[in-house]
Amino acid sequence: MALGQEKTKILGDFLKSRRERMKPAPADVVGRFGRRRTPGLRREEVAQLAGVSITWYTWLEQGRVTTTSREVIESIGRALQLSPEEHHHLLHLANYGAEGNTIRHAEQLDPLLQSIIDQLHYPAIIANHRTEVLAFNRMASEIIADFDAVPAAQRVMARLIFMDPRLRGQLVNWKAFAEYTVGRLRSSYDQTVGDPWFEPFVREMCEKDEDFRTLWRLHHVQQKKAIHYTLDHPGAGRLHFQLISFAAINGDPNLHCCVFTPEPGTDTEQTLAHWPI
Fold it and tell me: How does 130-168 read in b/e, with b if 16+ C-beta sit within 10 Å?
């Protein structure tokens, strides 16, 4: 499938997923098209709310529309009641967002970046849009996950969150963090058409983990943001972090640094200051 066709298909799949998750409201469009047999809104209802023809909107969901005006895309987004993150994602899929950037691999990482995170006394990692961990400091390997013991090819946060029994068992708010992780991965997957890494990775994860498969099929998207990370560490006890991301390292939007920053009002800062205990 050509890249343009693949992107229009992704756009259509995303719109369909947002339409199906909507709960029919007592608006005057509801009930005009006969008895409801499917979850969410019908295509006819979205088309009417957005002010477009039913045929055209059907083609859009089927990936048969190659160009769409921003005005129409915005109208469809309002009809589907998209969140700010979903709205950003929709604009990108419709080619009204930032252009894709060249993918950097682990061997291209500036060694000075490793030096920077090595100086932090908080756990810190540098990852890319695939959630591949390209660099990590000692605290990250001792507190978050044993990155040193994980082969480089499998050192992927989206994999570890689901497939590493130790990390999954210790992460207190695993469900919320898993949802965030899959949402971030879905955003990158949809917006990086043509990256051959994603398809086999997602297929493998869906085959091996039911929770990942369920979350992936929801088509939820997430932008980078601060998120709570609570860990029951076997040596340090309960640790409370806020995961802070610094994006676009050296101008590359595919690279970001994640610093596990102690939550104010907890004893996590003091615990790390005396680590190892």
Answer: bbbbbbbbbbbbbbbbebeebeeeebbbbbbbbbbeebb
Q: Does domain 106-273 have CATH number 3.40.50.150?
A: no
Tens digit of each residue's pLDDT (9 = 90 or more) over 4-34: 678 899 999 999 999 999 877 554 444 555 5
Architecture of domain 3-93: Orthogonal Bundle (1.10)
Tell me the sheet residues that pair with 10. none
What is the rounded radius of gyration, in angstroms, for the C-alpha atoms of the chain?
21
- Does the structure show a pLDDT above 50 at 101? no
Listed residue (85, 57, 63) closest to 193, CA to CA: 63
Q: Which amino acid type is present at position 162?
A: F
Give CA 44 to chain center in angstroms. Answer: 30
Tokens encoding 125: 């990692």
pLDDT tens digits, residue range 29-75? 445 555 555 668 899 999 999 999 999 999 999 998 888 899 999 99
